[in-house]
Write a sequence for this structure.
Protein backbone atom coordinates (compact mmCIF):
# COMPACT_ATOMS: atom_id res chain seq x y z
CA UNK A 1 0.00 0.00 0.00
CA UNK A 2 1.11 3.54 -0.62
CA UNK A 3 2.10 5.96 2.15
CA UNK A 4 3.20 9.56 2.55
CA UNK A 5 5.60 11.03 5.10
CA UNK A 6 5.84 14.70 5.91
CA UNK A 7 8.79 14.87 8.32
CA UNK A 8 8.13 18.37 9.61
CA UNK A 9 5.10 18.85 11.85
CA UNK A 10 5.70 22.60 12.22
CA UNK A 11 7.80 25.04 10.23
CA UNK A 12 8.33 28.71 11.05
CA UNK A 13 9.44 31.07 8.31
CA UNK A 14 9.89 34.83 8.26
CA UNK A 15 7.71 36.77 5.87
CA UNK A 16 9.56 37.26 2.60
CA UNK A 17 11.85 34.28 3.16
CA UNK A 18 11.90 31.18 1.00
CA UNK A 19 10.05 28.01 1.92
CA UNK A 20 10.52 24.31 1.34
CA UNK A 21 8.13 21.68 2.73
CA UNK A 22 9.26 18.09 2.51
CA UNK A 23 7.25 15.13 1.31
CA UNK A 24 8.36 11.54 0.82
CA UNK A 25 6.16 8.81 -0.58
CA UNK A 26 6.25 5.06 -0.68
CA UNK A 27 4.77 3.34 -3.70
CA UNK A 28 5.98 0.63 -6.04
CA UNK A 29 5.41 2.54 -9.27
CA UNK A 30 5.24 6.17 -10.30
CA UNK A 31 2.40 7.73 -8.34
CA UNK A 32 0.20 10.68 -8.85
CA UNK A 33 1.31 13.38 -6.37
CA UNK A 34 -0.54 16.36 -4.94
CA UNK A 35 -0.10 19.25 -2.55
CA UNK A 36 -3.15 20.68 -0.79
CA UNK A 37 -3.46 23.64 1.58
CA UNK A 38 -5.98 23.89 4.41
CA UNK A 39 -6.67 27.19 6.14
CA UNK A 40 -8.57 27.25 9.46
CA UNK A 41 -12.24 26.47 8.92
CA UNK A 42 -11.70 25.96 5.20
CA UNK A 43 -11.76 22.94 3.00
CA UNK A 44 -8.66 21.61 1.30
CA UNK A 45 -7.53 23.51 -1.78
CA UNK A 46 -5.35 21.97 -4.46
CA UNK A 47 -2.04 23.81 -4.94
CA UNK A 48 -0.51 21.63 -7.62
CA UNK A 49 -0.27 18.09 -8.93
CA UNK A 50 2.14 15.80 -10.74
CA UNK A 51 0.93 13.10 -13.09
CA UNK A 52 3.77 12.70 -15.59
CA UNK A 53 6.19 14.66 -17.76
CA UNK A 54 8.12 17.65 -16.50
CA UNK A 55 9.22 16.93 -12.95
CA UNK A 56 8.99 20.58 -11.91
CA UNK A 57 5.37 21.59 -11.62
CA UNK A 58 3.96 25.04 -11.08
CA UNK A 59 0.90 25.67 -8.99
CA UNK A 60 -1.28 28.44 -7.72
CA UNK A 61 -0.21 31.21 -5.34
CA UNK A 62 3.40 31.07 -6.53
CA UNK A 63 4.09 27.52 -5.32
CA UNK A 64 6.08 24.91 -7.20
CA UNK A 65 7.10 21.33 -6.48
CA UNK A 66 9.73 18.99 -7.86
CA UNK A 67 9.25 15.25 -8.30
CA UNK A 68 12.48 13.32 -7.65
CA UNK A 69 12.03 9.65 -8.38
CA UNK A 70 15.46 8.67 -7.00
CA UNK A 71 14.59 10.21 -3.64
CA UNK A 72 10.86 9.34 -3.65
CA UNK A 73 10.24 12.97 -2.87
CA UNK A 74 7.87 15.72 -3.94
CA UNK A 75 8.95 18.83 -2.02
CA UNK A 76 6.94 22.03 -2.14
CA UNK A 77 8.71 25.38 -2.55
CA UNK A 78 7.94 29.06 -2.64
CA UNK A 79 10.60 31.75 -3.15
CA UNK A 80 9.00 34.37 -0.89
CA UNK A 81 6.23 33.66 1.60
CA UNK A 82 3.44 36.01 2.58
CA UNK A 83 1.61 36.14 5.90
CA UNK A 84 -1.46 34.73 4.14
CA UNK A 85 0.45 31.50 3.43
CA UNK A 86 0.13 30.48 7.07
CA UNK A 87 -1.88 27.26 6.96
CA UNK A 88 -1.66 23.47 7.08
CA UNK A 89 -0.10 21.83 4.03
CA UNK A 90 -0.77 18.26 3.00
CA UNK A 91 1.06 16.08 0.52
CA UNK A 92 -1.00 13.27 -1.01
CA UNK A 93 -0.47 10.33 -3.33
CA UNK A 94 -2.88 8.65 -5.70
CA UNK A 95 -2.60 5.24 -7.28
CA UNK A 96 -2.58 4.73 -11.03
CA UNK A 97 -5.28 2.40 -12.27
CA UNK A 98 -7.03 1.95 -8.98
CA UNK A 99 -9.82 3.58 -7.06
CA UNK A 100 -8.70 7.14 -6.84
CA UNK A 101 -9.15 8.17 -3.27
CA UNK A 102 -6.01 9.92 -2.07
CA UNK A 103 -3.59 8.91 0.70
CA UNK A 104 -2.52 11.97 2.67
CA UNK A 105 0.45 12.73 4.88
CA UNK A 106 -0.07 14.07 8.37
CA UNK A 107 0.52 17.62 7.28
CA UNK A 108 2.97 20.44 8.01
CA UNK A 109 1.78 23.48 9.94
CA UNK A 110 3.36 26.63 8.47
CA UNK A 111 3.81 29.63 10.75
CA UNK A 112 4.83 32.97 9.27
CA UNK A 113 6.79 35.37 11.44
CA UNK A 114 6.46 39.10 10.71
CA UNK B 1 -19.85 27.80 -9.60
CA UNK B 2 -21.01 26.77 -6.16
CA UNK B 3 -18.61 24.61 -4.19
CA UNK B 4 -19.18 21.42 -2.25
CA UNK B 5 -21.75 22.02 0.47
CA UNK B 6 -21.80 20.18 3.78
CA UNK B 7 -24.05 20.33 6.79
CA UNK B 8 -24.05 20.63 9.66
CA UNK B 9 -20.73 22.41 10.16
CA UNK B 10 -20.50 21.33 13.80
CA UNK B 11 -22.08 18.53 15.82
CA UNK B 12 -21.67 17.42 19.40
CA UNK B 13 -23.16 14.10 20.50
CA UNK B 14 -22.71 11.61 23.29
CA UNK B 15 -21.17 8.21 22.69
CA UNK B 16 -23.57 5.55 21.53
CA UNK B 17 -25.79 8.16 19.85
CA UNK B 18 -26.24 8.30 16.10
CA UNK B 19 -25.40 11.15 13.74
CA UNK B 20 -25.74 11.91 10.04
CA UNK B 21 -23.83 14.25 7.77
CA UNK B 22 -24.99 15.59 4.44
CA UNK B 23 -22.99 16.51 1.36
CA UNK B 24 -24.06 18.16 -1.88
CA UNK B 25 -21.28 17.98 -4.50
CA UNK B 26 -20.54 20.42 -7.27
CA UNK B 27 -23.19 20.21 -9.97
CA UNK B 28 -22.34 17.63 -12.59
CA UNK B 29 -19.65 15.90 -10.55
CA UNK B 30 -20.11 12.16 -10.84
CA UNK B 31 -17.57 11.11 -8.22
CA UNK B 32 -18.02 11.78 -4.52
CA UNK B 33 -15.70 10.99 -1.62
CA UNK B 34 -16.00 10.99 2.16
CA UNK B 35 -12.82 11.47 4.17
CA UNK B 36 -12.25 11.39 7.94
CA UNK B 37 -9.67 13.81 9.34
CA UNK B 38 -8.69 13.18 12.95
CA UNK B 39 -6.96 16.06 14.72
CA UNK B 40 -3.28 16.18 13.86
CA UNK B 41 -3.59 13.80 10.92
CA UNK B 42 -4.25 13.96 7.24
CA UNK B 43 -7.61 13.01 5.75
CA UNK B 44 -8.32 9.30 5.37
CA UNK B 45 -10.64 8.05 2.65
CA UNK B 46 -13.75 6.33 3.98
CA UNK B 47 -15.75 5.75 0.81
CA UNK B 48 -15.85 6.71 -2.87
CA UNK B 49 -18.98 6.80 -5.03
CA UNK B 50 -19.21 6.90 -8.80
CA UNK B 51 -22.72 8.17 -9.49
CA UNK B 52 -24.79 6.08 -7.05
CA UNK B 53 -22.44 3.08 -6.96
CA UNK B 54 -19.68 2.39 -4.44
CA UNK B 55 -16.17 2.27 -5.95
CA UNK B 56 -14.15 1.83 -2.76
CA UNK B 57 -15.30 1.38 0.83
CA UNK B 58 -12.37 -0.69 2.06
CA UNK B 59 -11.58 1.72 4.92
CA UNK B 60 -15.16 2.30 6.05
CA UNK B 61 -15.89 0.75 9.48
CA UNK B 62 -19.00 -0.97 8.28
CA UNK B 63 -20.13 -2.12 11.70
CA UNK B 64 -21.01 1.48 12.59
CA UNK B 65 -20.59 3.65 9.50
CA UNK B 66 -22.87 3.71 6.47
CA UNK B 67 -23.15 5.98 3.46
CA UNK B 68 -25.50 6.34 0.57
CA UNK B 69 -25.88 8.35 -2.60
CA UNK B 70 -29.24 7.16 -3.76
CA UNK B 71 -29.86 9.51 -6.70
CA UNK B 72 -26.23 9.97 -7.66
CA UNK B 73 -26.16 13.55 -6.43
CA UNK B 74 -26.08 14.35 -2.73
CA UNK B 75 -24.87 11.89 -0.13
CA UNK B 76 -25.35 11.07 3.53
CA UNK B 77 -22.80 9.56 5.90
CA UNK B 78 -24.14 8.02 9.10
CA UNK B 79 -22.50 6.80 12.28
CA UNK B 80 -24.47 4.52 14.59
CA UNK B 81 -23.51 4.13 17.39
CA UNK B 82 -20.78 6.74 17.75
CA UNK B 83 -17.59 6.13 19.72
CA UNK B 84 -15.21 8.64 21.27
CA UNK B 85 -12.61 7.87 18.58
CA UNK B 86 -15.05 9.04 15.90
CA UNK B 87 -14.39 12.63 16.93
CA UNK B 88 -12.99 14.16 13.74
CA UNK B 89 -13.73 16.42 10.81
CA UNK B 90 -15.66 14.65 8.06
CA UNK B 91 -14.79 16.01 4.65
CA UNK B 92 -16.75 15.53 1.49
CA UNK B 93 -15.10 15.96 -1.89
CA UNK B 94 -16.26 15.65 -5.48
CA UNK B 95 -14.70 15.42 -8.91
CA UNK B 96 -16.19 15.45 -12.35
CA UNK B 97 -14.81 12.06 -13.29
CA UNK B 98 -12.67 9.21 -12.05
CA UNK B 99 -9.02 8.81 -12.98
CA UNK B 100 -7.63 11.21 -10.40
CA UNK B 101 -9.31 14.34 -11.67
CA UNK B 102 -9.01 17.21 -9.21
CA UNK B 103 -11.01 16.67 -6.05
CA UNK B 104 -12.84 19.69 -4.67
CA UNK B 105 -13.35 19.63 -0.93
CA UNK B 106 -16.16 21.00 1.18
CA UNK B 107 -15.57 22.84 4.48
CA UNK B 108 -16.21 19.72 6.53
CA UNK B 109 -18.34 18.77 9.52
CA UNK B 110 -16.57 18.81 12.87
CA UNK B 111 -17.92 16.00 15.07
CA UNK B 112 -17.24 15.86 18.79
CA UNK B 113 -18.26 12.71 20.64
CA UNK B 114 -18.39 13.08 24.43
Amino acid sequence: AQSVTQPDIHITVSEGASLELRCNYSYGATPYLFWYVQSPGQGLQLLLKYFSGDTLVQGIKGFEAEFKRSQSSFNLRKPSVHWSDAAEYFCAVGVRGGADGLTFGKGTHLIIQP
Amino acid sequence: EAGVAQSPRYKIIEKRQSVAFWCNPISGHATLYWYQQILGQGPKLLIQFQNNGVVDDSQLPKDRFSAERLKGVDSTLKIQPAKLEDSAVYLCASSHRTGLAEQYFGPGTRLTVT
Remarks:
- The mean pLDDT of chain B is 93.
- Chain B has no helices and eleven strands.
- The longest strand of chain B covers residues 88-95.
